[in-house]
Amino acid sequence: MNISKRLLIAVPYLWLLVLFLIPFLIVFKISLSDYAVSIPPYAPTLDLSKGWAAFSELWSGLDAENYWFLTEDDLYWKAYLSSLKIAIISTFLTLLVGFPMAYAMANAPDEWRPSLMMLVILPFWTSFLIRVYAWMGILSNEGLLNQFLMWIGVISDPLVILNTNAAVYIGIVYTYLPFMILPIYATLEKLDHSLLEAAQDLGCTRSSAFWAVTLPLAKPGIIAGCFLVFIPTLGEFVIPSLLGGSKTLMIGKVLWEEFFSNRDWTVASAVAIILLLILIIPIVLFQRNEQKQREAGQ
Amino acid sequence: MRKFTWFNAVSLTFGFVFLYIPMVILIFYSFNASKLVTVWAGFSTRWYGELINNQAFLDAAWVTLKVGFISSTIATILGTMAAFVLVRSGRFFGRTLFSGMIYAPLVMPEVITGLSLLLLFIAIGLDRGVTTIVLAHATFSMCYVSVVVSSRMATFDESLEDAAYDLGCTGWDAFRSVTLPIIMPAVIAGWLLAFTLSLDDLVIASFTAGPSSTTLPIKIYSSVRLGVSPEINALSTIMIAIVTFGVLSVSIYSKRVIERQKREEQLANS
Amino acid sequence: MTKPSQPAVFAPWDDPKETPLISFENVSKRFGALTVIDKINLNIYSREFFALLGPSGCGKTTLMRMLAGFEDASDGTIRIDGQDMAGIPANKRAVNMMFQSYALFPHLSVANNLAFGLKRSDMPKSEIQGRVDEMLRLVQLGKYADRKPHQLSGGQRQRVALARALAKAPKLLLLDEPLGALDKKLRQETQFELMDIQEKTGTTFVIVTHDQEEAMTVASRIAVMDEGRLVQVDTADRIYETPNSVYVADFIGDVNIIEGAVDSTEGEHATLRWSEGAAPIRAMASDGISNGSKAAFVIRPEKVAISVEEPKDRHNRVQGSVEDIAYLGNRSTYFVRLPDGSLIKSQVANNRRIKQRLITWEDSVWLSWSDTAGAILPN
Hints:
The structure holds three protein chains of three kinds. Chain A is mainly α.
């Protein structure tokens, strides 16, 4: 290996080590430290002037106390569980909205498809924050949705939607919809249409051919789409913070508040570590699904 | 025979209405004369005027653009290098860790990325400001760039580089005059993605920004947390307009290029 | 088969005073535990059109990439013009390559593709344009100088690739399956064009191909490769007429193979026992056979005569019955089943228009061949 090749590897490698891996190790270290009223607000700190003794001193000062604290205070337990619940339900809702759209796009005439694709991708480039914000005006008590419902006479008193979990679900489905549609559309588009004709030739009706052929073949896309919605939703902060209420418990919001409002860095770090551990499972499953698809594609 | 059924038509119509109506409403109400966002009081461009005179927003916009340009340029350089390492370098010591560090930030919750970077900056005593936001944005968006560029690299015909060496190129010359021009569309797409991610980011910027380096998303977030504001509607409209214009023109341009290429290929083979 | 139109005396490989342009001395190449090239010794002479022929995975492409400088030999020495090439990178060699995919730079025009190598040589800038024009004329693409590769047809791209590789006037031009991407008709035309250009420029060509017909058409000599070794290196006619092994005989053209054991050898003839109760076959002996050793008799189908009457004047004759007939227009192939169960092909030219076949299915026929028509090879 020559020098330029080594340099090519070393530069991005070092960058990621310093700005990704080491910060992560610092989070882990602080999660084992104790809260202290000082700057920075944790102890012990690494005092390099003491030489090697500093490391052993640091080591003896670390413990899993913060993690015990997380198990004792049911706020955290509930936040994790409620994040999981919200992520699962909203992933399912996104699938319910996204699948028929992807399916319709795959059935659409060839000349429409680029434009339909464009319509799905365009919101993805638009600011996430603005898309979430747009719903605040619609869902509030005197918002457009309530005005509309009262105008057509369905309700007489405004519904309380903003600052509830319902608003969070709407926000998640809305912002993550393209992530669900695109992978499903990709698998449905590749689907060989003669398979459906073969199924009908062998006695399927159109709808039973859908259940027996289309759906199983679209499975990798459905799984990919679900993970692409589920994984980022679990740690979501902006949506529960703008659309959710004080009762909406999501772990991303808890972490944010622990850090910025309570200034308890040690607990925030422990919360982050646990969140990562929870995320590892869906990430590994997602990777496997991708791997299988790649192998099938070859 | 693919058949476009009435059910398909209904799901597409409802889906796109759902996707676009909030934005249409936002744009519509940005021209509302009333301060009460949900009551229509006639057409006015008043909020645009107030926005232009709001120095805090202009400052934040300037910081955001500055951060976006610098961080996405760094991310593009590093991400392209990383893509080369991933696709070309074969096996080397620590390869698994390297590819892990490329893919992990893509699925890492923003709150954790932000928190960890902030703790690093504090640990090494780096004052928070534009520099820290740039470092943070460059780090997570370089991973997106490397995914975009490496998927292009995977289909790159390596005999083109062999041909360049064969005709007398050195390594750097072959990269500059053959490889780079060919993967350029992917590199540009990577830059645009990195730029958009940077402009859009609230969470990581909130962790890594200092008091003098408020970005536009931080500013927007702090002004809408307590409710809808007509100025933000006007700002959103401007941002939506810019993105729509940009995305549409890029896609129309690339569609034309592809069509021309197809026509020329047909001509050459006829 | 046509032979390249070269002076009859062009046979530098037979002249011990000639020094080779390229020499491989005990060259091996290993990728990890896998040996791709196994102790090869080979000389290629100036102005030759040399073909490396073999199935995919036989090592022919690796051999070529070692000449180009993309791979280093694990063992042994490769010399070009007397110079040891070890450690000399591709961009420092007076060797150019025409790639299988053509590897035309898609972002550059035809003229810029041709000028690419020249700009990186010590040619003065003022002469580059002249050289590019010259190359465009050579491959008859003058009109297409400003086109991009995607605006060209397959045949035109192939010619640009050839011109680009020749532009720097290399000592040696390597061609990796140069015609593989073309359809059959265009391929035949292009083969002659290649030979023409080789002659005009006087460059030494080394071509890699898996198409035996292509190798036989264009090459002055052919190296047949198998599993990293050279099996036979010879002119096209000698490879066809006197293959040195069953592998070569089977790889080039159509062949009948009868396995047995050597019965006797005398001078340049030998006899082969092949079937209980049948007379031994008499044929040309080849090196490496001895009495009693396992061997195979190989004979081309067009050298096997077929008749209804017994040809009593021939030593080699067997009776069988016609199992199948393939009518191919200019010739017919008869598949004859012998009493021991083996199937022998006999090919007959259809010189005259026939209304009715003399020989038809299930007929009992005699197959015969002369003593010199086939060979007995070690198996």
